[in-house]
Amino acid sequence: MDIKDLNKTQIVLLCFLVAFVSSIATGITVVRLMTEQIALSSPQPVNRIIRQTIEKVVSPKEDTTIPVVVSEEALLVSAIETVSPYVVSIKRTTLEGESKTILGTVIENNTVIIDATHTVENASYGMEIGETPVPVTLSHVSDGIAYLTFTPSVSTETAFSKKPVSLAKTMPKSGQTVFGFDGLPLTVMRGIVSRITPATENNTATMITTLVGRSLFSGTPIVDTAGVIVGIGLVSEGETKVISSADVLAGMKK
Which of 34, 101, 130, 227: disulfide with 79, CB 3.0–4.6 Å? Predict the structure, then answer.
């Protein structure tokens, strides 16, 4: 049938039919395009939402560690508590019955060190721990230090149950805080290392502290704030000579 043969009513119906089919085709095309667009664009907003959510929920980890600052005074108190049990009284008795109390320091290998000027020929020595003195025997003398040994007993094992006091194997540094003991009962004296003189062929290294010239009880250990003995103070005619711990350890092996 030719369109020319159609009457007016038929032409109107045909226009409606074409418009209806066109609208259906347009709708299908639009739905298909929207579906494809959603499939391509959906991950991006979802990922963005997840990322933003994580940023809000998982906040940066804050460092809640509080630094502990230990004062030098606290270190000094701890060092004194560590060393003082090993600073002992040595009673020297001569053949004539004369007695003298000497300051001694207990170190490793059941050894006590004292100022060698306090040693007397044929004298006997006793380490005063509790009511009964523990006999000690003079072993040898080296660089102004006398080395005495004792046989472990119940009293010594009780008194020195902890690890023996440490002796430094190297010299301290200038400006380092140190302390020593003056007299019996023990009185603490505080100072610093003021100068270090290196060793030479004929002389050992010398340590000068601000404790020099004071009334240090000869034989006192010179101790740093870590509780490590860095030297032994020897007093002679008002002057103090400090023997380094390294030399004390070397002298023990002679």
Answer: 227
The sheet with strand 239-244 has its strands ordered as: 206-209, 187-197, 177-182, 220-224, 229-236, 239-244
Asked whether the beta carbons of 170 and 205 are under 8 A apart, the reply is: no
Mean pLDDT of 190-207: 82
CA separation (Å) from 200 to 117, 125, 127, 204? 24, 35, 36, 6
CA nearest to 112, candidates 219, 236, 247? 219
Q: Is the dihedral of CA 236, 140, 254, 249 positive or negative?
A: negative
pTM of the predicted structure, to 2 decimals: 0.68
Write out the two tokens for 205.
């290294």
Most confident range, picked from 92-101, 176-185, 208-217: 92-101
**Four-point Cα dihedral 18, 20, 25, 31, nearest 10:** 160
Q: In 42-150, which residue ranges form alpha helices assigned H by DSSP?
A: 43-57, 72-83
pLDDT tens column, 108-154? 888 999 999 899 888 999 998 877 789 999 999 998 899 999 988 88
Peptide bond into 67 cis (omega under 30): no
DSSP 58: S
Taking 3-state DSSP, the helix, strand and coil percentages for the chain, each rounded to the nearest 5, stand at: 35, 35, 35
